Amino acid sequence: MTKSIAVDLHYFPNLEFFAAIADAEELVFFPEERYQRQSFFNRTEIRLANKVGTLTVPIQGRRPRLSLENIRIDNSQNWVNVHLRGIQSAYGKAPFYEYYFPYFEKVFQQNYENLWVLNWEMLTICLKLLGLPVKMRVHDKGQDPTWSEDIRGELMPSAPFSERDYYDPEPYFQLFGLDFDPNLSILDLLFCEGPASKGIVLKSVKKQ
After folding, report:
1. 208 is a domain residue
2. pTM here?
3. Is residue 53 classed as helix, strand or coil in its secondary structure?
């Protein structure tokens, strides 16, 4: 039977996300679900020179009842340049930055209006660069549940990863400072460790 995991779509997911889905053969996503405030749908954390910083995609209007697929990016704000400058400032001197950054820069330059589409494109690239052979599909509302595990709503910023059973940090090389910052955006791992990233993700899967 295919190992299929029902999961939320995040903006540049953190390492807990990838540890949680590391052995999946298929990821199932649910664009019709309602947007939740204080989620990872439009935010990610990167390591800057003096702190861990948050990159947030601005979204339009009030959203209490909107489905995820209908969340629109507020492109009236100069967020793309802010994110590009932030990523460059954080990782411009990282060993694998020049190899991987163009993949993401190309997507940023598309000026997407729909956050679901942007996140889908970025996650597709991240999985490819990691070398995780997992398929992505959208759940058909008319079908019966067909997944073997459901972690929707579990990976939230409101509670630390240590309270969940997915991620046990495996330290790796990071820029800036001596203390290791766990569970940052997948960008941190990819830019710092390159082809070794997949092995680090697999080592960070919490033993049950």
Report:
1. no
2. 0.95
3. strand
Residues 57-90: b if buried by 16+ CB within 10 A, e if exposed? bebeeebeeeebbebebeeeeebbeebbeebeeb
- Tell me, what's the pLDDT at 140? 83
Contacts (Cβ under 8 Å, ≥6 apart) of 29: 7, 8, 9, 120, 136, 137, 138, 139
Q: Residue 195 is encoded by which pair of tokens?
A: 């082809």
Interatomic CA distance for residues 186 and 25, integer angstroms = 19
Instruction: Supply the pLDDT for residue 133.
Output: 92
Q: What is the mean pLDDT of each run of 10 residues along the chain (208 residues)?
A: 92 98 96 91 94 95 82 96 97 98 97 97 98 94 81 94 97 91 98 98 93
**Domain hosting residue 113, numbered range:** 4-203
Our CA angle for 98, 56, 108, nearest 5°, is: 40
Tally of domains within the chain: 1
**How would you classify the pairing of strands 4-6 and 149-150?**
parallel
Interatomic CA distance for residues 165 and 179, integer angstroms: 23
124: Cβ contacts below 8 Å, ≥ 6 apart: 136
First to last CA, the chain: 21
